[in-house]
Design a protein that fits this description.
The protein is mainly beta and 65 residues long. The chain has one domain (2-60): Roll (Ubiquitin-like (UB roll)), CATH 3.10.20.30. The protein has 1 helix and 5 strands, in the order ββαβββ. The chain starts with a strand and ends in a 5-residue tail after the last strand.
C-alpha cells in the first residue's frame, strides 16, 4: 500500500507516477510529486517508479501575480 493525500492506495509492481495519477483520476496538472523525500518533476513521471510503502505528496502548479 502507498499513502497519497491521506488515502491508502493499493500498490502494484511497476507502478509509475503517471500510472498513479491515472488511477487517481485527478485532473490537476501536477508539476512535482514528492515520493518520501524525493522530488520528481513532470518530465520524469513516466519513468519514475513508486515503491511499495511510500508516502506520496501531489504538488499542483501555482500561478499568481
Amino acid at each position: 500500500m502507498i499513502q497519497v493525500a491521506g488515502k491508502q492506495i493499493e500498490w502494484r509492481e511497476g507502478m509509475t507516477v503517471s500510472d498513479l495519477l491515472a488511477e487517481l483520476k485527478d485532473p490537476h496538472p501536477y508539476a512535482v510529486v514528492r515520493i518520501n523525500q524525493q522530488y520528481v518533476t513532470r518530465p520524469n513521471f513516466e519513468h519514475t517508479y513508486v515503491p511499495d510503502d511510500s508516502e506520496v505528496y501531489l504538488i499542483p502548479m501555482v500561478a499568481g501575480g
